[in-house]
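Ops channel
N.P.: pipeline sanity check, posting one input/output pair.
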């Protein structure tokens, strides 16, 4: 949310900030009867059925998908809302003008998974990128499993396309000879 700061000379400055997580607040009525205007997917359910689902969402403290489908009276789609949220709070009231119906006020907050990561293998399948939340990307070093009789300069030329990075690879692996036998795994680094 933006912030207004008052300066010494009574002037004001508006500090613009990035948008935070969205908050969604709304009210709805749980009908006590199957009215002609109601449309239930699997047949009429009592208000208690839906209240128990809302209570479970609050108690389990797990995010869920919040979907609203909006349509014109003709049935043509207008626009939809589809967002992962958590149930922050809700309030139940029977303060409605209708007989026995229940009014529910709900407060939802957008949920973003802080642990979501993506692993993307490089074309040569010897290295990978890990993309972490908030756009942070860490490059995992490429590795090469050596075979009997291979030497460093040959591996460098085959894996990097030349010998330009030979010194860097030697330092990275603690090597001091071009003809040194390299059993095991050799760190090639990133391209």
């Amino acid at each position: 949310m933006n912030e207004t700061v008052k300066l010494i000379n009574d002037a004001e400055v508006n500090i613009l900030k990035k948008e935070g997580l969205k908050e969604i607040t709304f009210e709805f009525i749980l009908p006590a009867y199957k009215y002609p205007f109601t449309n239930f997917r699997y047949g009429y359910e009592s208000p208690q059925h839906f209240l128990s689902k809302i209570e479970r969402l609050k108690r389990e403290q797990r995010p869920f998908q919040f979907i609203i489908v909006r349509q014109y009276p003709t049935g043509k789609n207008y626009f939809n809302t589809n967002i992962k949220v958590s149930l922050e709070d809700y309030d139940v009231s029977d303060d409605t003008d209708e007989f026995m119906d229940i009014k529910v006020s709900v407060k939802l907050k957008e949920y973003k998974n802080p642990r979501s990561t993506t692993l993307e293998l490089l074309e040569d399948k010897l290295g990978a990128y890990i993309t972490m939340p908030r756009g942070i990307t860490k490059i995992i070093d490429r590795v090469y499993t050596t075979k009997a009789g291979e030497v460093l300069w040959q591996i460098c030329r085959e894996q990097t396309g030349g010998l330009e990075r030979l010194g860097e690879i030697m330092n990275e692996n603690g090597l001091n000879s071009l003809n040194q036998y390299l059993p095991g795994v050799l760190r090639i680094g990133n391209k």
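N.P.: looks fine end to end. The chain has a mean pLDDT of 79.
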